[in-house]
Design brief:
The chain is 31% helix and 48% strand. The chain is α+β, with helices and mostly antiparallel strands and 100 residues long. A 6-stranded mixed β-sheet has the order 2-1-6-5-4-3. Strand 5 and strand 6 form a beta hairpin.
Length: 100
Amino acid sequence: MNAAERLWRGLARRDWEAVRAQFHPSAVVERAGTGMRQDVDEYVAAHRVEAARGDEEIEVLRSVVDGKAAVIEARVGERRCAGIYDLHDGRIAGATEYWA
């Protein structure tokens, strides 16, 4: 299992330390189409706020890994997310997520 898959498992369990542990400290996550860029702490905080709003189930629908990159498609309640994660030394060095 790679860091992107562990990230989504941590999000599903609301295990914020496990989520944080999947990233390099300097990683940035971009939300495509919004221009929003979040560092690791901002990313974790945003997901904590979202989780507190409801009991949305998280399900990973698909995972594709190619050594230095992983693509995850997930369902979060009624929303969908596709994320492209750059992997380096077993952790996420950067990512772009597409939410619908």
